[in-house]
Amino acid sequence: MRRYQRSALRVSALILALAVISPAALAGESPLNWDLTEIYASEEAWAEAKGGIAGKIKLVDPYKGKLGESSANLKAVLDASYAIQMQASRLYGYASMRGDEDLRESGPQGMQAELQSMFADMTAATAWIDPEILTIPAETLKQFQADDPGLAMYARYLERLEKQRPHVLDAKSEQLLGMGSRIVGVGANIGGLLRNAEIPWPTITLSDGTELRLDPSGYTVGRIQQNREDRIKSYQEFFGTFEAFKGTLAATVAATVNEHVFNTQVRSYDSSLHASVSGNEVDPAVYRMLIKEINNNLPTLHRYIKLRARIMGIDDLRYHDMYPSLVSKVDADYSWENSKKLVLDALKPLGGEYVRRFGHALESGWVDVYPRKGKRSGAYVTGAAYEVHPYMLLNHTDDYNGTSTLAHEGGHLMHSSFSQEANPYPTSGYAIFVAEVASTVNEVLLQKDLVAKADGDEARLALLGNFLESLRNTVFRQTMFAEFELAIHEMVERGEALTGDNLNELYAEMIRRYHGEAEGVMKIDDLYTVEWAFIPHFHYNFYVYQYATSYVAAIALAEGIMEDRPGARDNYLTFLKSGGTRPPVDLLKSAGVDMTSPEPIHAAMRLMNEVMDQIDQIIEKR
What we know:
Keywords: Hydrolase, Metal-binding, Metalloprotease, Protease, Signal, Zinc
Strand content: under 5%
Number of helices: 25
Protein name: Oligopeptidase F
Shape: globular
Strand order of the largest sheet: 3-5-4
Mean pLDDT: 91
GO molecular function: metal ion binding; metalloendopeptidase activity
Order of helices and strands: HHHHHHHHHEEHHHHHHHHEEEHHHHHHHH
Structural class: mainly alpha
EC number: 3.4.24.-
Radius of gyration: 25 Å
CATH class of the domain at 1-168 and 365-398: Mainly Alpha
Cofactor: Zn(2+)
């Protein structure tokens, strides 16, 4: 998953520049750790750069009240504002990545805390800019751009700002909201602290004698155990703990949703959904269409659940049976060195330019590869250091998931790389709506390539099963989350309270509908209806639907590339290089997929059924 850093000014820096080859690479070694000295040579250099920002903020002050006087004034204030954003993002990227190297170190945490305070001051100090620009008549702004070619790089910013005209307040009100940025995200922060640090997670003993602490990370281990009793115990203890804290966790969700509703009302949007997706220039109808079409295709998910039960030999498949691999073990080399080879081979349909650039990144200090004590878990890409290059954090494991994660995060890495090289800073960042497309195209290409080269039916079955799980988790599960998120926002908009009990009730209805309980497909235990408390994405302001839309878009794009359809690869590479130069739905349409139509969803469902047909054929030969 791509990490989005907020510089607290308008948009995050999501990009990079071509890298200088690291010393390790020059020595002929393959570096396993990222090289942050390319951002700042030392923490002292970081502190010096931070100290210089305060003076740069003041560069916008002389233009207050004068933006409408000339194109030169407008350009000067935008130049200064974006320069501050770029440097602030670079500062935060360094501090954040330094902290992620070892979460136990207090130094980087202090650096991030310093920046949060500074960012709030920066937001307040520049909050007048957008409202003042919107006091300038639209025709005058057009004339300014015609008169001054230097404003061309800000055309998209001005276009998007014009679309927000009905929702931008006067300068004083915007300043007050900017001052309030210090308390934005409190619900998410408290919820994260509870889940990750303060809830007393239980420890269980697995059937092989291994002790497993069932925190959120341990649960992901417990739920994939081949021994069913181990899985049941993991689910019961994990969700039983959440049940005990559901009231407090519901309060954190309520705080976040109320924050979103407050913003909706203050800025005169039709709904919280509208307020969120309009920032990406996406019509709310796209969100609602996704939910509708996935609900129409629930029989495909139900077919998969029945197929999983058949393969696992379980008559009454339950929710705790959804994560184990369909094949217990397949011999394959997923070491770091071979993972790089597998991924680069699979990405050859994208062309030599793409493969060479990715290969260079893997050998040049852009990646922190292995887990170690204190290192942040998971994986992400950050392009916060625009003038340097993007960085990728992994916790590589020598299994299929490790290789797939490399392909996925590599998609983000290359999207950022191409986007920055082709665009100036103001248009180099791409919308969240398309952020998961590039990563998922890589996943699909890897899965297809590995299946084509698989040695034997068991290996093919394992890989096809992984593909089905990706579809289940990314398309169906994320859409269920999106439907839940929409429902809780609509509840608050109607004046209803969010409590642990009514969130359980709402989630129960959805999880049972999606998994076909009424049709006799799967019974969902009452205890598992507290799963909403485990999902941090409900604090992310209508983010999760984009996993599903990105996945179905990526399937369509990847199939066109693999089938060598005319223009498919070139159009896709153009998309990667387009950054934020056009609305995201338009960019995808130019690449070859129309997300205002249900056809990409239908195509994904056809593919899922085709994969299940292949698995049926393998099973019949057993």
